[in-house]
Amino acid sequence: xxxxxxxxxxxxxxxxxxxxxxxxxxxxxxxxxxxxxxxxxxxxxxxxxxxxxxxxxxxxxxxxxxxxxxxxxxxxxxxxxxxxxxxxxxxxxxxxxxxxxxxxxxxxxxxxxxxxxxxxxxxxxxxxxxxxxxxxxxxxxxxxxxxxxxxxxxxxxxxxxxxxxxxxxxxxxxxxxxxxxxxxxxxxxxxxxxxxxxxxxxxxxxxxxxxxxxxxxxxxxxxxxxxxxxxxxxxxxxxxxxxxxxxxxxxxxxxxxxxxxxxxxxxxxxxxxxxxxxxxxxxxxxxxxxxxxxxxxxxxxxxxxxxxxxxxxxxxxxxxxxxxxxxxxxxxx
Amino acid sequence: xxxxxxxxxxxxxxxxxxxxxxxxxxxxxxxxxxxxxxxxxxxxxxxxxxxxxxxxxxxxxxxxxxxxxxxxxxxxxxxxxxxxxxxxxxxxxxxxxxxxxxxxxxxxxxxxxxxxxxxxxxxxxxxxxxxxxxxxxxxxxxxxxxxxxxxxxxxxxxxxxxxxxxxxxxxxxxxxxxxxxxxxxxxxxxxxxxxxxxxxxxxxxxxxxxxxxxxxxxxxxxxxxxxxxxxxxxxxxxxxxxxxxxxxxxxxxxxxxxxxxxxxxxxxxxxxxxxxxxxxxxxxxxxxxxxxxxxxxxxxxxxxxxxxxxxxxxxxxxxxxxxxxxxxxxxxx
Lengths: 333, 333
Hints:
alpha/beta, Peroxisomal Thiolase, Chain A, domain 1, 2 domains, six-stranded mixed β-sheet, Thiolase-like (chains A, B), SpoVAD_sf (chains A, B)
């Protein structure tokens, strides 16, 4: 089954039989707003704290994905989930409500593709019949952990990202209808020495390039074999950098090279800066926008290379540089 | 391959071909001190911060495990690692030094068994030839995140745990000599409503019981089929509670029922309270003490049920209860 040093192939073609995306107001007002299953205009989701709001959003997405997959939570073999908050609390706390065997994963904003990869591996190796994956982020929980208290109103440079309020979940199953997961390329941790947390797009671009290059090498394909190649959230600064780096390595990413962080918001929306980020961003853009192109028969093969900046507030304060990672998953019709 | 709803079986018997454990002074002074590969008496490991110290300890353990496995880092297909610090920084930052494809996992103090389970799955499904797993914790990094600044000298109740300064790593391979990983049981998140972070043993006991019960049900075995059944770090408070809960469910855990958190320290050592904890605790006790019994031919089958409390300082401050999880792995000679 091993095609190369970083890529897994899934010959049984595990299917995404159902998914759901729930987003906040700003994401709902963006160009993909009509694609999402629910837009919640109350940033608190009716809860007393933003952290509990994120949890509730995540729980709703998971329940809705299971419903869209025409099964019940008891039919789920395993749940694989993660988020951006310290100690993965959105994933862990939302897991209390379903009581299914649970695997916590962490790759920052690349978390959902790690979850997809492991879920497809579980289904393909016949160790799970239906695996629920999910990832979430909330602008207001990320702001107060990674940046400043919102009330402080700190100014940001245009290279900054806007953490998406978004949660997505999907059921990957051995049987059923839906886009298939055919390959996953596990990324390496790359750190080229950027220490400025306002420059995450630039920091993450080399990781996306490294994983794309490994994927093409492992599969023997070219970028022309994909209808879309979407990076996770490099944004308007990091995405052109990735394109330039690929061209320098002799890889033409073509016009089908896009970015979930750019797709999520309109550049004219207030305070979106270089684009969306957070584990929820790439998750809901993939589930509700990119995969719909496969479901509607418009596209046959899409690759998403989710990128993650593996920093923490503590490492930033201690002057550390930012290790980054990118995991890629191939979806086919 | 699926034996039940929570247990994976690995018919190809992936082997632990090499491992390493590095610990701090208190762990080195404990009853298992002579079992470990290195005892570092400088809590800073020569670094300017405790976080960087944990990272260096983790890197050393990974390099030594690869060396003990008679291979080089380039022979490692994937690395699966995690720790207790916010945003998994010890695992992510140590990954910069090896440049191998990396999967971050998080199950708090149960992290190493999630890593073992996924590594064995990768090797058994022929998607990886050699997978490096690891987990770490450092008393001084955990203290200042989860409890109080050490300098504050806050008093603790006897139900508290002592987070171990310990990092362990192991190579799981398709070929070679060493204890085999034959099964893994993925735990469910259990939360019985305990909100006091000084009572983690009591909070985690129900998760250990739930996973042990599921494991026995999935495999059709009894506790007598194991030479040792070790919980992760329930400690002197949680472990007797788990025994009592098992007896109430008609499961006699027998005299072979032990606990890594109790084994790591002598109860007479200063400030060990109810026993060790932290992802490093169960990791080094398993690798350097329990698995040696298999290597020396004394034991044939050992199960370790690592337990994790999935809380964060933020959830504790917001008055949340503590979701817990336990993952079990069976090791055979």
